[in-house]
Amino acid sequence: MKPLLSSKLKEFLDRFDHFKESEIRSLEIISPTTIELTLTAQDKARAYDWLTITLLFDEVNDAKLISGSQIAYVNLDDGISIVTEDGFFAFCLENYKTVASIKESSFYIISKSIKYKEGAF
Length: 121
Fold this sequence. Notes:
By secondary structure, the chain is mainly beta. The protein has helices at residues 9-15, 99-102, and strands at 2-3, 24-31, 34-43, 49-64, 80-85, 88-93, 108-119. The mean pLDDT is 93.
C-alpha cells in the first residue's frame, strides 16, 4: 500500500473525480484503530477505466460508520471528501471542507494516516 500524502491529496481526489458515482464494495474494521474501506472509481489516468481503491485508515481516533447491511445502499453521487487538519486526515461521504463539518456527515473516519492500493474492478 502507498501512503496518501497531504501534499498529494488534491491530485488524488481529482484523479478519481472525488469518487462521484462510485460505490462502496466493503468496509472492514480490522482493529479498534484500523479500518479498511474498498470503493470503486473511474481513473482519469487510465482513460476513465473502472478500478477498485482500497483505503486503509491507521490510528483512527474517531469514526461514525454505517452497519454492514446498510453499506450497499450508500449513495456516492456527490462523492467523498478528505481533508487534513492538525496532523489528521478526515474522510467522509459528500462534500465537506473542514473536520468540524465532516463530523456532521452520516459516515466519517478521522485517522492519523491513510494508505491506498489500486486493484482490478
